[in-house]
Write a structure and sequence with these properties.
heterodimer; A: 301 residues; mainly alpha; ABC transporter involved in vitamin B12 uptake, BtuC; two-stranded antiparallel sheet; 2 strands; 70% helix; 2% strand; B: 236 residues; alpha/beta; Rossmann fold; four-stranded antiparallel sheet; 10 strands; 29% helix; 28% strand; globular; binds adenosine-5'-triphosphate; binds magnesium ion
């Protein structure tokens, strides 16, 4: 393994870092939703996929559909619009359906969100087929950039910087602001928080929208580097759940660290022992379950 | 005070936890600036009465008016906003928030709330604990924090559930002095108490609850004359 050329190692590490960024954003959203709604949001992958599709549709289909072929929603506009649409649809889902299950066992929320994910993926398959769509990065982010020790596609550097900024901003919001204190208190004892005058039902809807919006942001960022297919989110979600099991759902900064860490481990495994790269995350998950069932950052109860 | 307007009027209040019917028509009232207690043996429904006032039980019927506003159809957050501060029996300090965050967490529900400095003047023990997580505070500190944080909201009506429970005598003493100071400042208080000795000198009137109903009302100056009745009702 020591004769592997350095550029190959760096390339895999960068890919690992980029994957880790997606793991981090998605598992943070799951952790936020789990904290306030007590459900594991199986729709998360479908919501990620929807945002990627909205991005692609905005550029390629929207104009023709509306009868103005030259009308396009570019990448930057999508970066704002797509997460908002996905969050809005998610909040509708929470208000109409999830809320009714809030007093029941976790399992019902899981089944519902799983069902909604299947329906959503099925609808996109019906509408767009399973062959992947491509999406070019915006012009200013095309081409490579020299980051000192290697050349890197500009867009990939952008994804890393943007996702880290998004994750850190989310942590700051949770740990350092008044709204964050409400969200943490609502995770711990929502009933009492409501008795203090906070409209907790609305807060829960917004928290779901926020968690889903993070998945949406990740989906837009993913559009230029992943194949846009109806199954892109479901595939990713398998790994995300492993991340969540390893890190525990109790901490959003823990979700970020675990997500990034596992992305990197996956990348490094690809260099040193490629055969194991697709299973390494699950091996770590099994170990974590054996050694620390509540997750690395979870609270043992 | 006898003719001050009503701060809280509870009439025919029934409340349930799922299928269990706990309150069977509770009636009592509190005037502005008054301090009243809800006394009674274990499990008679005193905590449930406070929860039902805030809409925290299951179903509830009857009438609960806060400063003249009927609240029976309102959700808890709207009731709190009418100016109700609640200190639950289990204290309800958020373990994952710092003491400082716990103290400043609650939204303002009325004018003239305490500043943090005023809370620290009342409870000096809290002053040095701001950075500690709520879960790391001692029982006495948690109790003071639970009281201090509702003082900051400006709520004129305080519902305090067994604030002396399980605390050392010096802390109970400090809490008693705090109640006296708050009364002097014009707060209206409902104290749920087990510790009759603690309550008898603080409150203007006492209500005794049994089996989910008010069974006796005793003014402060009647206690001496009705000692035997009170002891029987409280099982002392
Ligand atoms: N969440 C609940 N679900 C079902 N029953 C409850 C619940 N909480 C309390 N009860 C029952 O309601 C009755 C009244 O309880 P409550 O807590 O109001 O008593 P209390 O007067 O405050 O006494 P104490 O605090 O000393 O236990 C008790 O019989 C109790 O078992
Ligand atoms: Mg009680």
């Amino acid at each position: 393994m020591f004769d592997i050329p350095l550029p190959a190692v760096l390339a895999q590490v960068t890919i690992g870092l980029i994957n880790g960024c997606f793991y981090a954003m998605l598992s943070m959203g799951l952790a936020i939703i789990f904290g306030l709604l007590n459900i594991i949001n199986f729709t998360h992958g479908a919501q990620f996929m929807m945002a990627a599709f909205i991005t692609w549709i905005g550029l390629n289909q929207l104009g023709p559909w509306l009868g103005f072929p030259e009308l396009q929603l570019g990448f930057w506009a999508s970066l704002v619009v797509a997460p908002l649409i996905v969050a809005a649809v998610g909040m509708g889902l929470e208000r109409l359906l999830l809320r009714r299950l809030a007093h029941l066992d976790h399992l019902y929320g899981l089944l519902l969100t799983f069902g909604v994910a299947l329906v959503t993926e099925g609808a996109f398959r019906h509408g767009f087929g399973v062959s992947g769509q491509g999406y070019d990065p915006p012009e200013m982010l095309q081409g490579p950039i020299d980051i000192g020790f290697m050349m890197l596609p500009r867009y990939r550097l952008f994804v890393v910087v943007a996702s880290l900024a998004i994750c850190l901003a989310t942590i700051w919001l949770f740990e350092r602001t008044r709204l964050g204190a409400y969200l943490r208190a609502g995770t711990e004892n929502p009933r009492l928080l409501q008795a203090f005058g906070i409209n907790v039902p609305v807060m829960i809807t917004l928290a779901y929208g926020f968690g889903v919006g993070l998945a949406g942001l990740a989906g837009v960022l993913a559009a230029p580097i992943m194949q846009i297919t109806p199954l892109m989110g479901g595939n990713l979600l398998n790994i995300i759940f492993a991340v969540v099991v390893i890190g525990g759902l109790g901490s959003i900064s823990g979700a970020m660290v675990t997500g990034l860490g596992l992305g990197l481990i996956e990348g490094i495994t690809k260099v040193v022992y490629p055969e194991a790269s697709t299973v390494v995350v699950f091996v770590i998950m099994a170990l974590a379950l054996l050694l620390r069932p509540a997750g690395l950052f979870g609270r043992e109860t | 005070m006898a003719d001050a307007p009503f701060m809280l009027e509870v009439a025919g209040l029934n409340a349930w936890y799922a299928e269990s019917h706990i309150l069977h028509g509770v009636d009592f009232h509190v005037r502005e600036g008054e301090c009243v207690t809800l006394l009674g043996r274990n499990g008679v429904g005193r905590t449930t009465t406070l929860k039902a006032i805030l809409g925290l039980t299951g179903r509830r019927t009857g009438s609960v008016k806060v400063r003249g506003h009927e609240t029976i159809g309102l959700p808890p957050h709207r009731i709190a906003r009418l100016g109700v501060g609640y200190c639950p029996e289990e204290r309800g300090i958020y373990a994952t928030l710092t003491a400082q965050e716990n103290l400043t967490l609650l939204p303002k529900v009325g004018p003239g709330g305490f500043s943090a400095a005023e809370v620290f003047a009342l409870f000096p023990n809290l002053r040095e604990r701001g950075a500690s997580l709520g879960g790391r505070l001692s029982g006495g500190e948690q109790q003071m924090l639970a009281l201090g944080r509702i003082l900051m909201t400006g709520a004129p009506l305080l519902l305090l559930d067994e604030i002396t429970e399980g605390l050392a005598p010096v802390i109970v003493e400090a809490l008693g002095q705090a109640i006296v100071a708050l009364k002097a400042r014009g707060f209206t208080m409902v104290l749920v108490e087990q510790n009759f000795h603690f309550a008898r000198h603080l409150a203007d009137r006492h209500y005794v609850i049994d089996h989910g109903q008010v069974v006796a009302e005793i003014a402060r100056d009647e206690i001496a004359g009705r000692e035997a009745e009170v002891n029987r009702l409280l099982g002392l």
